[in-house]
Amino acid sequence: MNTQAAPVGRETPRELAERLSLSFHDGLLLSRALTHRSYINEHPEAIEDNERLEFLGDAVLDFMVGAWLYNRYPEMPEGDLTRMRSALVHTEQLAEFASMIQLGNALRLGRGEDQAGGRLRPALLCDTFEAIIGAIYLDMGIEAVWEFISPFLEEAADDILENHKTEDPKSQFQEWVQAQGMPAPQYVTRGTSGPDHSKVFMVDVVVSGQVYGSGSGHGKQAATKAAAQDALDRLGLID
Q1: Three-state SS annotation for the chain
Q2: For 87, 125, 136, 191, which has the most beta carbons within 10 A of its beta carbon?
Q3: Catalytic residue of the set 11, 49, 54, 58
């Protein structure tokens, strides 16, 4: 994995490819992978955003991460493999991969999304990383994807296992609530902020009318997970 620092300022798709040692035959594929829909709205000459490549990259990643885990951990049971795969392909982890290669510098964003901090937004970085995977697959094939993604997986898998990151906070909190003989927790959205293209949700996790934790995130799923994590922290149930 080539993590050479990005130059100061914005990067062109060609500069990104050179820095990451990606030899694209069709440079337009990489440009498309880096193009957010907000850019299309402001640049009618741009043909397509990265959402279709993101769809493809998501599917390629699911398969490849599953295959990688199957071979990397031959004694690991199916349930643990499933949890490991989920941990390796969830939004925050893929956004971290994108940050490691400073992908934000090369994103093609509309002015509003850029000013709203889109280059640092985890959901957007995750989507773009998936689109990059889709573009590599289409242009260079499955072996090139293996070469690109394997170093990320090696490093992240060790961290996930060492720090027990396969443990989902919502499931952990649910188990604790059930052990206390209490009703199931409810996740209540108490507000939102920000523009439609970068909305932040604020969520409380409530049990028997009492708020046990609060969290926020770009999307309800991320906010509910943060709320459950906050509840576990308050209860002293995690290290």
Answers
A1: CCCCCCCCCCCCHHHHHHHCCCCCCCHHHHHHHCECHHHHHHCCCCCCCCHHHHHHHHHHHHHHHHHHHHHHCCCCCHHHHHHHHHHHHCHHHHHHHHHHCCHHHHCECCHHHHHCCHHHCHHHHHHHHHHHHHHHHHHHCHHHHHHHHHHHHHHHHHHHHHCCCCCCHHHHHHHHHHHCCCCCCEEEEEEEECCHHHCEEEEEEEECCEEEEEEEECCHHHHHHHHHHHHHHHHCCCC
A2: 136
A3: 58
